Amino acid sequence: MLEPQQGMSIQEIVDWAVYAERKGYGYILRSDHLLPIGDNRAMDSPECWITLGILAATTKKIRFGPLVSPIGFRNPALLSRMACNVHSYSHGRLVLGVGAGWYADEYRAHGYEFPKFRVRYEQFVEALKIIKPLIEGKKVDFHGKYYSAKTICYPLSGSKVHLIIGGKDSRILRAAGKFADEWNVTDISAAAFKDIKKRVDDSKGSRKIEYSRMGSFLIAENRKQLEAKLKKRPELSKIYGSIKVDELKKLGVLCGTVDELTSQLNELTEAGVDKFYFQILDTGDKEMVDLLTDTLKKL
Q1: Are residues 52 and 96 in contact, defined by beta-carbon separation less than 8 angstroms?
Q2: Which domains does the chain show, CATH number per domain?
Q3: Are 129 and 71 in contact (CB under 8 A)?
Q4: Distance between alpha carbon 144 and the CA centroid of its chain, in Å?
Q5: Which of 32, 142, 187, 287 could form a disulfide with 66, with the two C-beta atoms 3.0–4.6 Å apart?
């Protein structure tokens, strides 16, 4: 799977989706944010669900969706209706990632309240009690503290929408164990992934859940080329606190030569990762994405 970063036009997003489909990737996913993340607020950041509708119309095989849509500005009943419509139109290709939200600035800039995490978690659980039955083609009749819904989503597509929950907080892990078809986590080492996965396993009972890892990547033919790429990405030190290869690897970032990245992927697979979602940091570096593609084909 590929996930293009922000800062692209809708046409560029479509172009990457066509590339991913042509190269055999299983998914093209988008972050769902109302503002660009970081200091550059003038950056292009097309509305997520508008672009998902466009991807439904411009691709044929690849699956797609948000990773993730925050329920704080996506009413759960309306979000479910949007998801069911796009899922039906695309012949069952939508996946729906949802989260409790974390980016306060985007909420406040658009007139949404950004409560403390305890409240956001309570809202999230209520939202899941509405979303899960609706995207499975069932009628919901729910009245909670924050949300209510008494409806069913048409058209019924014949297949349920795959539900992804992302996050590391212990309360989110419990929600994933109870509601999710897939649990996703970002930029994590194999050892940390194995530990957190166990907590999801303990809460899911007999339910079957897929486990996925999403994160940025840097790959090159040799260390010299890799270090040159890192020097061009000074913003990584703000995100991770370092731009040194070995330190980034310890933090769980996929970073290295072809052999090093292959070793990281194998280690994560042994730890229980079922799917890898690769976030493209520099959409202008097509050569690096091509190298990733060639590397994955050899695994």
Answers
A1: no
A2: 2-297 (3.20.20.30)
A3: no
A4: 27
A5: 32
